[in-house]
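Subject: design request, 168 residues
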C-alpha cells in the first residue's frame, strides 16, 4: 500500500509501481526481474479487506486498551504494571517472479546475467515510438508477446510484453 506521504510528494494522478527482484551470487547480480505492479499484485482492496478484518477483530477483544496506529493494531498496557504494549504489524510476502511467471519465461542460470521485464502491452505501446524502436532494433534484447494471468482473476489472461536481455 502506498503511504500518504508518497502520494502527496508531487502532483500526479497515477504512478507506475515496478517491482525489482534480483538474485545475486556472492559477488555479482545474476538475474533481475522488473515487473509492473498491475501485472504482479491484485488491486489494493484485496489486501485492505484482510487488514481491516484483522484490525476490527483485534479491536473486539474485551478489556484491552487499543491505540491509534498505522499498523494492524497496537494494544497498550498488556502487563499488570501497564508498561508493555503489543505492536501488530502486517508483513506481506510475495512469490518471486521467477516462480510466478515460470509459465512464460525461465532464467538460464548458466548466463552471467539475465534480465526479464514484464508489462502490459498497452503500457509498452504508451512509450514514445523512438524508445520502443531503440529496444526492438537492439539485437541483444528480445521482446515477446505473452499472455499472463490477471492478478485479480487468474482465470483471465491479458496481453503483455516480456522483454529479455542476457549476458552469456
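Subject: RE: design request

Done. Sequence follows.
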Amino acid at each position: 500500500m502506498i503511504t500518504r506521504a508518497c502520494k502527496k510528494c508531487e502532483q500526479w494522478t497515477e504512478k507506475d509501481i515496478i517491482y525489482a527482484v534480483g538474485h545475486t551470487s556472492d559477488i555479482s547480480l545474476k538475474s533481475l526481474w522488473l515487473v509492473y505492479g498491475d501485472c504482479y499484485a491484485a488491486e489494493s482492496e484485496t489486501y485492505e479487506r484482510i487488514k481491516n478484518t484483522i484490525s476490527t477483530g483485534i479491536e473486539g477483544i474485551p478489556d484491552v486498551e487499543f491505540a491509534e496506529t498505522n499498523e494492524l493494531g497496537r494494544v497498550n498496557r498488556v502487563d499488570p504494571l501497564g508498561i508493555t504494549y503489543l505492536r501488530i504489524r502486517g508483513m506481506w510476502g510475495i512469490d518471486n517472479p521467477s516462480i510466478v511467471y515460470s509459465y512464460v519465461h525461465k532464467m538460464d542460470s548458466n548466463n552471467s546475467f539475465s534480465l526479464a521485464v514484464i508489462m502490459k502491452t498497452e503500457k509498452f505501446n504508451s512509450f514514445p515510438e523512438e524508445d520502443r524502436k531503440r529496444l526492438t532494433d537492439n539485437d541483444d534484447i528480445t521482446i515477446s508477446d505473452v499472455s499472463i494471468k490477471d492478478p485479480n482473476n487468474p482465470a483471465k489472461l491479458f496481453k503483455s510484453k516480456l522483454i529479455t536481455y542476457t549476458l552469456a
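The radius of gyration is 21 Å.
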